[in-house]
Amino acid sequence: xxxxxxxxxxxxxxxxxxxxLRCNYSSSVSVYLFWYVQYPxxxxxxxxxxLSGSTLVKGINGFEAEFNKSQTSFHLRKPSVHISDTAEYFxxxxxxxxxxxxxxxxxxxxxNP
Amino acid sequence: xxxxxxxxRHLVRRRGQEARLRCSPMKGHSHVYWYRQLPEEGLKFMVYxxxxxxxxxxxMPKERFSAEFPKEGPSILRIQQVVRxxxxxxxxxxxxxxxxxxxxHFGDGTRLSIL
Lengths: 113, 115
Known about the structure:
- The structure holds 2 protein chains of 2 kinds.
- By secondary structure, chain A is mainly β.
- Helices cover 0% and strands 51% of the residues of chain A.
- Chain A is globular, with a radius of gyration of 13 Å.
- The N and C termini of chain A lie far apart (41 Å).
- By secondary structure, chain B is mainly beta.
- In chain B, strand 4 and strand 5 form a beta hairpin.
- The chains are: A mainly beta, B mainly beta.
């Protein structure tokens, strides 16, 4: 069965510093990869997705992620974070041909002034 | 608001009661997914429905839980005889094609508390 591991449960960073949130998935078959952000008491909002093609994908709010097939990773990065980026971030994967998303445990990003 | 609408936002039930959670998908979407988020955990898939059909219920508990998506009206997740362990946030998502490469759009969730 497909699984997703987010290696850090919490990541504290200072404002304007760069950040990387790590995500690894288990499947060796072709997959689609997603990053979602969840603000307190809200649903999930799509940040970006990898379907095929270029391994570097750009999303909203200045975030980007790189798909690495050999390492089965899809790490999320932002070169300079803002206070407003404080939220929970979820990596998710779906197998081609399957509709359901498998989520990681989430990474809580805290931005300190 | 053309987004995914869930209601109620908060629901309190006593042990043994029934909980009904509603989800109206985005306009034009006919594929609905339900996920459960336990405290401090990620979302876990429960069920995938298309109008009037359950497509995948592999994540649904075998007892007390059921889901429907009628031809008219919202999708309903029903939990009978609730227990404390059912306390969680329940999220609904929708998509237009049901294909894995189409992003799912999420509602704000229903937070279920069992007394």
